[in-house]
Each structure stands twice: as structure tokens, then as C-alpha cells.
Model the fold of this input.
Amino acid sequence: MKEGLNVMQFGGIYEFKEVPCPLCGYSLIIPVFPGYRISSRCPRCGGVLYIAVGRDGGIRIRGRSYLELVKEEVLRIAKENINKYLEIGGKIYCSYCGYALEKPKIEVSEENGVIEAYTVCPKCGGKMSWVTQEVSRGTQIF
Done:
């Protein structure tokens, strides 16, 4: 067991194990007792980790990358924006050629630390941006 861990915090009867983050390999120290479940963030990569300890003491750990979570949130906000816009106006028009888009297809891209949700006009190829989010390690997810 590593120095500085407060075993009394968990009643002093549990052991601790070192498990690697499934996304970046960083060593995490978790208490091992049956039925323990937690979702936490990896201090190195920022990914969300879901940790569960079974009755037999087996540890299951799975993770989702921070970038993946931000992309999902950007897509959700873009869909909300489009739905609100459609409720008000009924149709969305391309800002370049005026083509009416009835059900715009949303695409998400990540380039140089910026995630963008946009729609490409099928007629002229113009790019209409819905949401843009700059991502760095300390960025809050909206």
C-alpha cells in the first residue's frame, strides 16, 4: 500500500489496488471491497472512468475519453439549436445559396483543439456552423 492513503476513511478494513486507466495507462489507486462503484476522472487524460468491484473482488474498469464526451455534448447542443430553429421558422436555408434544408445532417469535426458541429449544404457545399467549442485539458464540458 502506498504512503499517505487514509485507510480510516474507508473503515480501515479494505485493501487498495493499483489499476491502470484504460485510456492512457496512468496508475489509479482504488479501494477494493464488494459492491464498490464509482465514476471518476483520470487526473492525466481527463477521461471519465467507470469502476466497479464485483463480489469476488474482480475489478471492471471502462473509460470514455474527454474528447468523446465533448463531441457528444456539442452534437446534443447543435441538435437542440436546430430543433428550436425549425420550431420557429419551419425551414433552414443555406446562408450561401439560399437552398432550403428540411432535415439538415449534422457533422462533427475536431481540428487543432476546436470541435465544431456543422451542416454542409448539399447544393453548393457551403458550411453552416451550429456550435464551436475550443477544447483544452482544463475545459469544462458546458
Observations:
- The first helix runs from residue 66 to 89.
- The chain is about 15% helix and 35% strand.
- The mean pLDDT is 82.
